[in-house]
Amino acid sequence: MKNKFNQSQQNRTGQHKKKKNRQLRMKKKKVSNKNEFQLATMVTSTCFQNLLTSPELPKKTISNPLDVATSSDPTLLLPDYSKLSDSKFIQMLLASTSNMINQDALMELLNQKEILLFIRELTQLVNKFNYSQLQFEQWSYYNNLGITENIWNGRVSKKMAETNSMCYTYGRSKNLIKQRLTKYKQQCDKNQEAINEHLKQASFSIDIQTMTTMINNLINKDQYELRLELERRKTMLRLDAEEHQLVEKFYQLKPRQTEITSAKIIWKANNEQQNIKHEIDIFKKCLEVHAQESSYTLQGIELPTIYHIFISLSFQEQISTVKDIAEKTIVKAEEIVQHYNKIVILEKQKLQSTKSHHKNPDLLEQIIHSIVQRENNLQQRREYELQGKITNIFNYTRNTQMDIQPNIPPDLTV
């Protein structure tokens, strides 16, 4: 009996050891699989980043988060001519001249170091003056809008903004507008005085009128995107104010809870749809720029949904090239856009279906119309936001990598 007991105990001990060894092997296998997955993900992630960057030139990290609306610094679009190499500055200046000017004579003039330095400094002074003038005009517009249409600044709680897919604040306060008008008026006067003093220091004979025309042509061309961005901000201010008015108008109709829920679903689906559309458009632009200009580096652009789809497809499908994965990524992302579109359609149909037994069909019609008005406003706002994102991401990148550094002194920032 004793021998049988000892044998049984030994068997149990042996089985326990085998079980522990088996568990240990399984654990090692899981760790190995996890490491392989992480390695594969890293490789795929590198492929994705290579679509946005190029190894041919040293990378210049550019942080351009996707959430770029009206808060981005417009000086990112403003070149600093003092940072350019002599050859690059001469090349840009010559490109801005008219056919009436003798290029050979001008080149001979620019080859004189003292004259080139004088013209470069004058160009930067005029550049700063024009920027201050643009900003003074911008804040004058905000002031006039407040006086004539009572559009100053407003806000709602962040919770209210989140549940209704809206911006929680908009506009500029009277006090801020007053401060900025004073600031940019002083800068205009200061920069104009600096230009006048610089012109007095010329110790050589040149045609100042012709030179000033050339400089203005160059600056007007280089500040084109800046002017567009400032105009976009004017439109965004109006749309932001209109958004708050439309949401307030909707709640003033005293909709039922089911109608409020439907409105929130429609607006949220529209907002999420626009988020994906933005990622698609920016990703397409990245691919286009990467194909045309391999020296561009667009590191730092955040495309979370596109990135997730790209990584998933890399494991799910046997696609031969990164380009194929990118194309399929766009197709999948566009399917998500359509998914949100279906949500909107179904929710609107649900609202319409309640009309037959609604106590006040006319009121319901007003509520539906109010929802659609806000929906249209949301789409318009997001389209203008996208314009701003693309301008800030790609034009800032272009300026930086062309060696036109947007490095304006602190007193010239917004």
Characterization of this structure:
With 414 residues, the protein is mainly α. It folds into 2 domains: 53-78 and 228-408, no CATH class; 82-222. Helices cover 74% and strands 1% of the residues. Strands 1-2 form a two-stranded antiparallel sheet. Helix 8 (224-252) packs antiparallel against helix 12 and helix 9 (257-292) runs parallel beside helix 12. The N and C termini lie far apart (94 Å). 24% of the residues are buried.
Question: How would you concisely characterize the structure shown here?
Answer:
By secondary structure, the chain is mainly alpha-helical.
Q: What layout of secondary structure does this protein have?
A:
Blueprint (H helix, E strand, L loop, with lengths): L1 H51 L33 H10 L7 H8 L2 H37 L3 E3 L2 H6 L5 E3 L2 H27 L7 H15 L1 H29 L4 H36 L11 H13 L5 H32 L7 H41 L13
Antiparallel strand pairs: 1-2
Point out poorly predicted stretches.
29-43, 54-71, 400-414
> What is the CA–CA distance across the termini?
94 Å
Supply Rg.
Answer: 31 Å
Helix and strand string, N-terminal first?
A: HHHHEHEHHHHHHH
Overall form: extended
Mean model confidence by pLDDT? 82
The number of strands is 2
The strand line-up of the biggest sheet is 1-2
Beta-strand percentage?
A: under 5%
Number of domains: 2
Structural class: mainly alpha
